Amino acid sequence: MTPQGDxxxxxxxxxxxxxxxxxxxxxxxxxxxxxxxxxxxxKMEIEDNKLIIKIKPLD
Length: 59
Description:
This protein is mainly β. Helices cover about 10% and strands about 35% of the residues. The chain is globular.
C-alpha cells in the first residue's frame, strides 16, 4: 500500500517515558498558520476499523 500525503516517523519523546512524538508536516503548519507554542486538541475515533485522528488548534 502506497501512503498518500505526508509521512512522519514516531520517535521516543525522551529516555524516561514511553511517550512517542512525531513532527507536524510543514504543509499543515502553513495551511493552518500554526506557530511554536500553539496548542492542539487531538480527538481519536474508530471508523470502519480504521483509526481517525482529528486535530484542531485550541483558540
